[in-house]
Amino acid sequence: MELWFSDNQTDHVKVSVKVEKQLFGEQTDFQRIDVFESREFGRFLSSDGSIVFSEKDEFIYDEMIVHVPMAVHPHVKKVLVIGGGDGGVARELSYYEEIEQIDVVESDRTFVDVCRKFFPDNACGLEDPRVNIYYEDGLRFLRTKHDAYDLIINDAIDPLGHTAGLFTKEFYGNCYRALKEDGIMVYQHGSPFYDEDEESCRVMHRKASHSFPISRVYQAHIPTCSSGYWLFGFASKKYHPLTDLNVERWKARGIKTWYYTTNLHKGAFMLPKYVEDMLEEEEGRR
Amino acid sequence: MELWFSDNQTDHVKVSVKVEKQLFGEQTDFQRIDVFESREFGRFLSSDGSIVFSEKDEFIYDEMIVHVPMAVHPHVKKVLVIGGGDGGVARELSYYEEIEQIDVVESDRTFVDVCRKFFPDNACGLEDPRVNIYYEDGLRFLRTKHDAYDLIINDAIDPLGHTAGLFTKEFYGNCYRALKEDGIMVYQHGSPFYDEDEESCRVMHRKASHSFPISRVYQAHIPTCSSGYWLFGFASKKYHPLTDLNVERWKARGIKTWYYTTNLHKGAFMLPKYVEDMLEEEEGRR
Lengths: 286, 286
Prior knowledge:
homodimer, about 290 residues, alpha/beta, Spermidine Synthase, Chain: A, domain 2, Rossmann fold, 10 helices, about 30% strand, globular, Polyamine aminopropyltransferase (chains A, B)
């Protein structure tokens, strides 16, 4: 028997992974969650049929969304993670001694339970005593927060699914308000390659550029993401992702990584011409 | 009817592209060549079942293998392209007025004929009067050349298939001899991500580091390549890919690109930690 899981990246492209067996499958109030065991990607989790993360490549995503802002902001004490119920982002954050509080807001309790059971290497991040988990809607949680966080990480997965509210103009405005006067927000920016993905990528940059004085985009190669090429947004009130990068301070922490280096940090902001052109067009429209 | 083309990137991962129709299919003396029309990638060509290039993403590959060395070497007059029968590399080279001679060595004449018929936007590069096409084995062609070229581009596709001879230690040695005293060789370095690909990636770096005093690796995101993440080798007798990059000289040429910029050039050499570690291990073994 051969069992293949297929992820429809667009209507015309799919990536299929040979699986050894299915470990979990359930419809929650928010999404369909499945967990599979595979040779190539180890265990992986899918939401509504799309791969969310795998044991083999989650390090790329989690390192890039955490260490880039942490190497720039000089004194992060309070962090808000929206989504992030698998624990990978909290795990990377837990390596920083100066952080005092990590609030994780995840709407789907079952998602957290599943990750605790099947992905202990991610979920261990949620066991850090500085972590508070709120099972709430991220947008609603944000509305009550003012001048509260140094860093907000929007780890939500899908601008079209049950987390769509986290990609609206209101959301970016609320993030701005919830941040302290020198706060940074990083977020998933999607993939710019396929035509189907490009529009949401444009809209995100337009909204972030409208709300924040500094809005830049950086890249990583993540094989299980659409086209394998993923962008992150860096929206900031004060610190610039390159000129405020402090290489010595970050290296002195001695954090072990497999993808991130401060050199790669710089390169991640050097984008292909077609992506630069797209972003500049949206900046003109804001 | 739905027709899907599947590219087995490893034994456990495949990428499938929905095709409108098949335009060509033939077994030559060297390989099985097929051409398809698709909505997502436009026309694409496969060799022995693997996608070689598509209209939608060939610009990434062709720009990155040509403009990186051309922005470094100050006076390229004679170029050898091994493989490259589709014409995309020759097309990018043809934008440089200072180049006097472009020798393209392609073993499979049918491959060139097919590209001329179905991919005129690539094959136009072969019509430049400075281009000479040799229908020969690349390794044999090289053996007779000494101190002949400023730049060698190894555009051959597969270290395991009919072009395997172009990935041997002898090949790198012959390239070194065929280059002038300040010559540069660039080559496809494969993808470092999947375990199946990693070994050939290691071997290539070991061989190139053994033959050339300067041997560096750079990256690009190419969706139709294995895992979407592709490496190139930059092996050089004299010029360093970063310290000898001449931004002003390159920009003054006014070449229109969609992927390459001199800023991206720098970022392309800033590699993920796991790739850096792999390359350093091989340098220790050379």
